[in-house]
Amino acid sequence: MIPLRVDGPERAMETVVLAHGAGAPMDSPFLEHVAAGLAARGLRVVRFEFPYMHARRADRRPPPDREPVLLDRWRAVLAELGGRPPVIGGKSLGGRMASLLADEVGARALVCLGYPFHPPGKPQRLRVAHLESLRTPTLVVQGTRDALGSREEVASYRLSRSIRVHWVGDGDHSLKPRARSGRSERQNLDEAVDAVAQFVGGLG
After folding, report:
1. Which of 4, 17, 21 is nearest to 113 (CA)?
2. Rounded CA gap, 63 and 53, in Å?
3. Averaged pLDDT, 175-200
């Protein structure tokens, strides 16, 4: 059994399965806020961890698993949940892995919270090839000054017509704004939650 965190009504019309980013667990403040916000809007939210992050809870510090291991964990979680195909996605790494198998598993939709379009400081190493032909309805919630894919950079990418990007003002890779922007981190996270809830609610 894979340890899961579940928020929201058990009989919700939609389930959203979220994976964490590379450096923070499924109960990070970011994902806690997102999960609580979506649950309050009537969605069932399921969170899980990749093997390396689960191992870190035992005071070990393994590096992130390789891609095949990450994808296998995603498949195992979805098999364990069963039932109607859920919306899948997550924060950064978690969302990117979900995007690689969304079409394969027949996901209801895909939600990426801060998509890492390229590694830090390496804009030439793009992670967008599979996004050009993605068929799954997709929402990317991205900060306008995300160092892993800013608004200016993303505008130059060839993305599938199934992908919609919601831009959060002055947000970094975790949607955190600068103090001088006049925006707060909570305001940006709440905007992200609203965008995801509206997207999922409009799937029909």
Report:
1. 21
2. 9
3. 97
Residues 6 and 35 sit within 8 Å (Cβ to Cβ): no
* Predicted pLDDT at 141: 98
Altogether, the residues listed in the chain come to a count of 204
In the predicted model, is pLDDT for residue 190 greater than 80? yes
Distance, in Å, from the CA atom of 108 to the CA atom of 129, rounded to the nearest integer, reads 21
Query: Which pair of structure tokens corresponds to residue 130?
Result: 């599979």
Give the domain range for residue 46: 5-201
pTM: 0.96
CATH code at position 161: 3.40.50.1820
Tokens matching residue 163: 């992908």
3-state helix, strand, coil in the chain (%, to 5): 35, 15, 45
